[in-house]
Design a protein that fits this description.
The chain is of the alpha/beta class. It folds into two domains: 3-181 and 298-456, Zn peptidases (Aminopeptidase, 3-Layer(aba) Sandwich); 184-296, 2-Layer Sandwich (Alpha-Beta Plaits), CATH 3.30.70. The protein contains 15 helices and eleven strands. The protein has helices at 3-13, 15-28, 36-48, 110-131, 150-156, 209-223, 263-284, 303-316, 322-333, 337-351, 353-361, 383-389, 409-413, 418-440, 442-456, and strands at residues 52-57, 60-70, 74-80, 135-142, 165-172, 176-177, 184-193, 232-239, 251-260, 287-296, 392-398. The radius of gyration is 23 Å and the shape is globular. The relative contact order is 0.18. The chain binds zinc ion.
Length: 474
């Protein structure tokens, strides 16, 4: 049977199982490095499906690789399953309605992300068995994409070294193959140590760590004028030094995220921000500890892999029922006026004016967005780290109503809907068929490698993690 038809039939036949896995992970809503139940559920499923599973990798308890087959090529499917804090939300309710105040929620759709990659690997295995195909396929259960960059540790420890092609996707509001365009990103803690004293009785004896944090933030806000325009710098004061204004704060901490198109540019920002931290310490007679806890590399796109993904996305593009459109419309109506204004310009920018204005009227974006090879995006992903060591392709499918913002309660609310399930299954079909194409066509693999080497242009993996960094909760 034609492979595309096979993947379609196999995945449609087994879709209830995959929907259930995704929905269970949605319910577990486990944050970075704590995805114990989510990881176990997927590991057990893969063992039953005939894969050999090794877990607890690169110091990440919830990381695992499920493998089938032997020899070359090695095709990797990447999945995630971590949730986000503060995004607990009732399913299907188009108003903010947390199940648990400040609880966890799947605000980036990683319940769908991991499950589609898993489903694709299982479908491809079934086709390999039926047709006696060689080669190796792997599903990578990757922890802690959010706020920790879990894949960077797997890359650092060599778990992708023998892979030929890596494929992944991300749920979103659009059917679109991703070009380049995710930003490299460092997360760095600055902890200031001062001296405590009575803020009224003996202020001259105190050295305020909170003053140092504030002066550092002011200094960085002046720095903004003198960095490249694609750089992004944001911070959160993670320890203000207590809640008492009448005590000079002896310890205070601020967490910075700094981003730019290339790792080398983020390294430069890191050096400059470090000087500002030292300056703030000098001004306040405090000391500062600097600790980098995560790093994401920029994404190396690959036009060869993108072309295969694009063909398959076109083949499997879904349509929606009237009920699904009505469901999405309810969510499209509750976004803020600012988001609504942004939606229109986004539709025109992405689809072009004519198609964009048509798509803008729809509750779910239905067309495939034209592929843009080189673009600069605002987000970061640890898929970037994988893309430096393996030719990698990624794409998105529409899983939520048009206009739904990432990392929002609206994403969580729609995470178990039939639209989300449909987007997930579409992604699984695209991944499985694209995986098959690379598995069985050595010339295509070579072409993707050539594209990859051209894009790297002589550079090698920048390994942005400091040598002492290890996966940890912070
Ligand atoms: Zn995500």
């Amino acid at each position: 049977m034609d492979y595309r038809k096979f993947m379609e039939e196999f995945l449609e036949k087994n879709k209830e199982e995959f929907n259930q896995i995704s929905d269970e992970i949605w319910g577990y809503a486990e944050p970075r490095f704590r995805e114990y139940k989510s990881s176990k559920l997927q590991q057990e499923y893969m063992e039953k499906a005939g894969f050999s599973v090794k877990a607890d990798l690169a110091g990440e308890e919830t990381a695992f690789i499920a493998e089938y087959g032997s020899g070359k090529p090695v095709i990797a499917f990447l999945g995630e399953f971590d949730s986000l804090s503060g995004l607990s939300q009732e399913a299907d309710v188009p108003e903010h309605c947390p199940v648990e105040p400040n609880g966890e929620g799947h605000g980036c759709g990683h319940n769908l992300l991991g499950t589609a990659a898993l489903a694709a690997t299982v479908a491809l295995k079934a086709y390999m068995e039926e047709n006696g195909l060689g080669g190796t396929i792997r599903y990578y259960g990757c922890p802690a994409e959010e706020n920790a960059g879990g894949k960077a540790y797997l890359v650092r420890d060599g778990y992708f070294n023998d892979c030929d092609i890596a494929l992944t996707w991300h749920p979103g509001t659009m059917n679109r193959v991703t070009g380049s365009g995710s930003l490299a990103n460092f997360r760095v803690f600055y902890t200031f140590h001062g001296l405590s004293s009575h803020a009224a009785g003996a202020p001259h004896l105190g050295r305020s760590a909170l003053d140092a944090v504030e002066l550092m933030d002011v200094g960085v806000n002046y720095l903004r004028e003198h960095v490249i325009s694609d750089a992004r710098i944001h911070y959160a004061i993670t320890n203000p030094g207590g809640t008492a204004p009448n005590v000079v704060q002896s310890e205070a901490q601020v967490l910075y995220a700094m981003r730019a198109p290339k790792v080398s540019q983020v390294k430069e920002l890191y050096e400059r921000i470090g000087k500002i931290a030292q300056g703030a310490a000098l001004m306040t007679e405090t000391t500062v500890d600097i600790k980098q806890v995560a790093a994401y590399s920029d994404y190396i796109g690959n036009d060869t892999i993108a072309a295969q993904l694009g063909e398959n996305l076109k083949y499997y593009l879904p349509s929606y029922t009237e009920e699904e459109k009505a469901y999405a419309q309810k969510f499209k109506e509750v976004i803020t006026d600012l988001d609504k204004a942004n939606l229109r310009s986004q539709a025109i920018r992405v689809f072009g004016r004519e198609v964009g204005l048509q798509e803008y009227e729809k509750p779910i974006f239905e067309s495939i967005a034209p592929y843009v090879s080189a673009s600069v995006g605002g987000g970061s992903t640890d898929v970037g780290d994988v893309s430096w060591v393996v030719p990698t392709g990624q794409f998105g499918t529409a899983c939520w109503a048009a206009g739904t913002a990432g990392h929002s309660w609206q994403v969580v609310a729609q995470g178990k809907s039939s639209i989300a399930h449909k987007g997930m299954l579409t992604a699984a079909k695209v991944l499985a068929s694209t995986g098959y194409e690379f598995l069985t066509n050595p010339e295509l693999v070579e072409k993707a490698k050539k594209t990859w080497l051209e894009n790297l242009d002589g550079e090698t993996y920048p390994n942005p993690l400091p040598p002492e960094a290890k996966p940890e909760l912070w």
